[in-house]
Each structure stands twice: as C-alpha cells, then as structure tokens.
Request: fold
Amino acid sequence: MVNEHRSGPVRSTAAREAILDATARLFHNQGYDRLTIQGIAKEAGVGKQTIYRWWPSRGALIGECLAEGRLIPVDFVVPDTGDLAADVETWLRSVLSILEAPEGGALLRSLVAAATEDAGVGAHLGESLGVEKYLTERIRGGIRDGQLPTDAPVEQLGRAILGAIIVESLGREHHDSESIVHLTRFLFSPRS
Amino acid sequence: MVNEHRSGPVRSTAAREAILDATARLFHNQGYDRLTIQGIAKEAGVGKQTIYRWWPSRGALIGECLAEGRLIPVDFVVPDTGDLAADVETWLRSVLSILEAPEGGALLRSLVAAATEDAGVGAHLGESLGVEKYLTERIRGGIRDGQLPTDAPVEQLGRAILGAIIVESLGREHHDSESIVHLTRFLFSPRS
Reply:
C-alpha cells in the first residue's frame, strides 16, 4: 500500500512502480478486456486520480509497461551466422514459441487490443519482439552480404512479418507456425 | 421496436435484423470499445436475453455483421491485366483509401480489437478486404503466368500483406501508405 499523503519524488517513484506493477499483473491475469483504471488503482493501493495524473488511459499504461519490458521480458535477438533465411527462422521460432502456449497467444491478442486504443502500444509491440532493433538490422545485413536486392524495403519486410504473426494470433483456431516459417524462407532464401 | 411477445420465425427474423442493424450502427458511431450488449439491446428494442439466445458475445455479433457485409460493404476486387505487381497495387490502393479517412482507420482498428476477442472476426476480416477471394487468387494467377516462383506461399503472402495493413493502422501517427505499396512492388515485380 502506497501512502497517498506523502509528497515529493519518493512518493511518486513508489506509486509509479506500484501502478505499473499492478497493471502488468492484472493484464497478465485478466487480459486487456477486463483491465480498468479502477481495478489497477485498487490493486496498486492508490487513488484513480493518481493514475490519471500521469497516464490518460489504460492503453497508455500498457504502452509504458511494454516499453519497460514488464510484459514481454525476453530479448528476441536475431543471430548472424551469415545465412539470412536461417537466422530469421531462428528468431521467428523463438517469437512463435510464445504463441504456442495458450497464455502467450492471449497475451499477444491483448497487446493488439491495447494497440487499437493507444498508438504507443503499437509502436512498442514491434520493438518488444525485436522487429526494429534486431530483425530489420539483420535484413540490412542481408542486403550488405548480397543476399537481398539493394532496393529491398527493409522496414516494411519487418512489419509484414510482424503483421503475419499478428494475423496468425487472431485466427487462433487454425494455429500453424510452419506457414510463417515458409513465408520467411520464401522472402529470404537465395533465389536460383 | 420489435414485439418481444410475438413468436415463431417472423419475430426471429425481424429481431435478428434489428439486432444486427443496431450492432452495425453503434459500432460505426462509437467503435468497439464502447459497444455493449446492453446498448445493442436498447438500440434494437429487444431484451438482452434475446441477443444472448443467439450470440454469445459482442465479438460474435461483429463477426456476423462483417460476414454479411454490414460493416465493409465494398467488394475489393483485384483486377487481372496480366501485370501482377500493378494489379495488386490497384487493390492495395483501394483498401488503403479506407485508412486515409480518420473514420476508416478507426473502423479497421475497431475490427482488429473485435478480432482479438472473437476468432470469427479475424477470419472474416481478411475475407471482407478480398484477401482470400481475390488477392490470393490473383497471386496464384501470377504463379501460372510465371511471374512468381511455383513454391511461392500464396496464402501467407496474402496474410502478410493484410498484416502489414493492420500494423499500419495500429501506428496511426505515422501513416504512410506508400511504404506498403513499395512492399508489394518488391514482392510481386519481376526480378531482373
């Protein structure tokens, strides 16, 4: 329980921590649909107004949790063995392994739901899966190594793969990771 | 106002129409976030139980509205001029023209939000944009015409493009249709 009557930076830091912790915990346990500012305030032991002073919406809270690695704490690195298609496949399989577990699929769908309400969540989602930092960087390496044409649209390829993962998670009844692997092989394998 | 006390197929058809009409209208006006079964029941002039007798959730209602063309009434055909890249670009520009308007972007984001709660919405979303019926069919034609390798993963290419459109709509602040056009040109233009 955070003491609402203390003031200054100490209280702010403690309350901020408690609020983000409570948000991440409730999000994991209940999903986005049932997440409310009131529920977060109760869980964190603060007043609703304390939350609204710093965050305009539950979507903004999820965006901040995501940016701080509180929701997807894994670092999805893309290796560089010199074989672009194989390296992307390694990354893809580690990301897709999240979706294999029911709670992982639900987490991703909840993040997509949050992204529809808050643009910051959308921006951080790709970041959390390593799309900007690792995947597009690795694709750039593939261009340098002559494995992809120099005019390959690097960012868009990364976003299309992220998009395919999202579409996959939305159609949860027909879960088929291999088909995305097939896609990336087609995109990144050397053409004869 | 539908008379709740009449019975038989006539009442069912009228009530069903009223409920789906009300769902589509409220969804357009308020978005998914504020859509409730209670609100739909009031708008349709029926009891909540009448709705729950036929649909388990608001997501299921949105899925049915989408499948019946009540939310995206346009038929997104992909032409066949013999130039695969140009044909896909024509289709893509007509789909992206929805996103250009603020209410179109909001509609798509609301549909994605609904898809996170109901798998049927996800399935019908690609269908409503012509992904399965027209886009993948056209890509298959491109393989027949020798414009794509025979091992091109047709469905996955369609879903990656749908995914890129979804990711685009989630990052609404940096709206840039041209980059998706660039992606499809890269995917479908003849390689030298």
